[in-house]
Amino acid sequence: MTIIITAFERSPDGGKGLARDTRVRWALEEVGQPYEVRLVSFRAMKEPAHRALQPFGQIPTYEEGDLALFETGAIVLHIAERHAGLLPVDANARARAITWMFAAVNTVEPPILELATARLLEGDKSWTKERLPLVEERVRNRLDQLSTRLGDADWLDGAFSAGDLMMVSVLLRLRSSGILDEYPNLAAYVARGESRPAYKRAFDAQLAVNTGKLPTG
Ligand code: GTB
């Protein structure tokens, strides 16, 4: 069954891999599933045909035969449950890996998104200068905790899993802030994720869309 995902026709990040289709591409590359991409404009995203797939008018979506999914956490979990490579076989280890997926999107991502919003969308507001340190503090608080838990391990719980895929994807959004570099073990963790061949393939594929350059190698 052909897997079709949606992505920005032109991502606002110009191909830095920060739009959320990258994490879905990465999961599909990790498990070796081919996929097709339907590119959507900002206008098309808000139209009924796309909202039937994604009620909030966003990308990415995932279609596979009769199944249509949205929300990257749910999409990556679906991929990980149906194909080997992203979740441990042992039931308890599997449950813990899924826990890290939820931690990534529910606990770590919100303050990171708040920071991105404060910088990109509210940078011109009179109160932003005063508010920004508070928002950055919330991000640092989460990174302190995550950094302590990761310690000098390569991955969050044993072998690389969908939990790491989601956590690395979430942390990548922080890179331009410089805050990630304050935590050498987290910066190295993200770099480890990015150096996986599957991540590189996913990154190159989204870059090709946004720059018109075909992936090499
Ligand atoms: N919770 C949903 C999920 O995980 O699937 C969130 C999906 C989402 O936020 N999609 C964004 C979108 O469609 C694209 S990824 N936005 C358009 C809209 O809401 O109208 C978020 C994103 C956008 C741009 C950058 N960037 O330019 O750096 C990074 C991330």
Question: Topology, pairings included?
Answer:
Blueprint: E1 3-8, H1 21-31, E2 36-40, H2 42-45, H3 48-51, E3 61-64, E4 67-70, H4 72-82, H5 91-120, H6 128-150, H7 162-172, H8 184-194, H9 197-211
Parallel strand pairs: 1-2
Antiparallel strand pairs: 1-3, 3-4
Helix pairs in contact: 1-4, 1-7, 1-9, 5-6, 5-7, 7-8
Residues 11-13, 18-20, 45, 57-59, 71-72 line the site of S-(P-nitrobenzyl)glutathione.
Short structural description:
The protein is of the alpha+beta class and 217 residues long.
* Class by SSE composition: alpha+beta
SSE ordering: EHEHHEEHHHHHH
Strand content: 5-15%
CATH topology of the largest domain: Glutathione S-transferase Yfyf (Class Pi), Chain A, domain 2
Distance between the termini: 27 Å
Identify every distinct bound molecule in the structure, by name, code or SMILES.
S-(P-nitrobenzyl)glutathione
State the total count of DSSP E strands. 4
Task: Give the class-level CATH name of the largest domain.
Answer: Mainly Alpha
> Please, how many domains?
2
